[in-house]
Amino acid sequence: MSLGQQLHPHLPFLRRYARALTGSQAHGDTYVRATLEAIVAAPDEFPRDVDPRLGLYRTFHAIWSSSHLEDSPGAASTGARETIANARLSRITPLSRQALLLTAMEGFSDEDAAYLVDVGPADIESLVNEALKAIEEQTRAKVLIIEDEPIIAMDIETIVRDLGHDVTAIAVTRDEAVREARAERPGLVLADIQLADDSSGIDAVKDILSEFSVPVIFITAFPERLLTGERPEPTFLITKPFQRSTVKAAISQALFFDEATAPA
Q: Which residue, 257, 251, 261, is CA-closest to 105?
């Protein structure tokens, strides 16, 4: 099996991670493209002593780290480096949040996460704890949940409230979601893709975003369908079935970027 065939199944999830890390679909996909360009340009430098997924994320992190320091020759093509340079964030995701996303959202072990961010395995736990402490200090937000499965909706509501946020409503259809958003403007939206009346959570979110800006986290059992990189897609995405820690990390990261870009 070629290296490309080995890496292909992992690309949607690298896109998810890159978008969550950068807070932007465009920026995240730029880093993924630069990663693939680097692999194509120097396939012999791809880590062969680890699982292909681990090697892919390791290469991504090399691109990510170098783009926030100095452009390193050979890290990626000149065009890719220039694109990244133009897309640099004003507020970089701290190492602690990288550790949290890698373990809670991407499911890497502490040992693998340590390898990816180039720290000692013992450091990952402290980094994650640092991120969790920062989460506790985040400003409280009003959250609209768009989810038609009652058990899942209740589970999400519990997680949201336990994080100290308020739930404005739980909507089960597109029309109800738009109505609830207008009634009490949320600071965050968590939306399932397929809703009770066969309407779409994506369409509900588009309707809401046409009226005001708000960070959105999508929830789906089929993430690969929304992470192709070929059209406008979610920046933050949770895969069903989800872990509590995954939802917590996604909510925190979405609000982190929302607060970072808010007017002073």
A: 251
